[in-house]
Amino acid sequence: MIRLYRLALPPELAEQLDDRTGKLREKRADGSVARAEWKSARNVRTQLTVHLTGMTTGIRRCMYCGDGLGTDIDHFEPLAEAPLRAFDWPNHLLACSHCNSHQKRELFPRDEDGAPLLVDPTAEDPYEHLELVLSTGVYEALTRRGDITIEVFGLNRADLVRGRASAFVRTVSMLRDRARLLGSDAEEAAEIVTSLRDQPFADVLYAMLRYRSLPGAHLVLRGGEVVDALGDPALQFWPHAGEFEPSR
Questions:
Q1: What ranges do the domains of the chain cover?
Q2: Which of 95, 113, 111 is nearest to 103 (CA)?
């Protein structure tokens, strides 16, 4: 899971969302009414999917696991709890069917004061709560919210852990190849950048970019050559990925 930045909607679409929210408020809609209205708003959902896709990593990846294709618009705060947020743009995230339907579902844990315990990657930096161990592909929690986020989204399910560990090996190799090609084959070197940007598990490269400035980075990242390669401006796909203050 990495920090994502929410796009501003076109005024016409934003107005449509406001109008639909107003109608839900007039109806004093509960979760079932809100869900029915949401399902009937096919054109709105299509437009929202386009804008959410523009916020994702790689080729339309899930905003939670970073692996599966983002096929579903998830209501971060479920309609059963917040029916008036059915058409609230900040409440929409793009998820794969597994994360949306099999993992999160209607789960939305809160603390003793009612504040949400799940991390919203479009509203805050997940790295305040989570840390990715590159060598194993496992997420470790830094806070209570991180622990619950890992559990609810299943971020450490076996296929994701194995996929991230493999992505780390693959990314290290691609970075070394790009460094060697920069002086001899600029076109192939550029193709590697595109592949790094589009591959699943973008959180692996994101973590590597953040960790490169830490003491001992050459040990974690498998060599000074990789650390140097990560300084390439062409790899700065995400704002602030290279600015990291360790949480512990």
A1: 11-109, 125-248
A2: 95
- What's the pLDDT at 243? 54
**Dist CA 231 CA 158 (whole Å):** 31
Residues 139-182 pLDDT 10s: 999 999 999 999 999 999 999 999 999 999 999 999 999 999 98
Query: So what's the pLDDT on residue 247?
Result: 43
Q: How far is CA 90 from CA 15, 123, 162, 163, 236, in A?
A: 14, 8, 32, 29, 25
Q: What are phi and psi of 19, to 5 degrees?
A: -60, -45
Q: Which residues, given as ranges, of the chain have pLDDT below 50?
A: 244-248
**pLDDT value for 160:** 96
Q: Whose CA is closest to 223, among 186, 169, 184? A: 169
Distance CA 155, CA 134 (A): 14
For residue 128, which of 102, 146, 113 has the smallest C-alpha distance? 146
Structural element, H or E, at residue 173: helix 158-181
Q: What are phi and psi of 155, to 5 degrees?
A: -65, -20
What angle is formed at CA 140 by the lines to CA 134 and CA 142, rounded to 5 degrees? 125
Name every residue whose Cβ is closer than 8 Å to that of residue 105 and which is 6 or more positions away in sequence.
Answer: none
**Who contacts 124 (Cβ-Cβ below 8 Å, separation ≥6)?**
3
Q: Which are the contacts of 66, defined by CB distance < 8 A and separation ≥ 6? A: 1, 2, 57, 58, 200, 201, 202, 203
Strand positions, DSSP E, 96-209: 130-133, 138-141
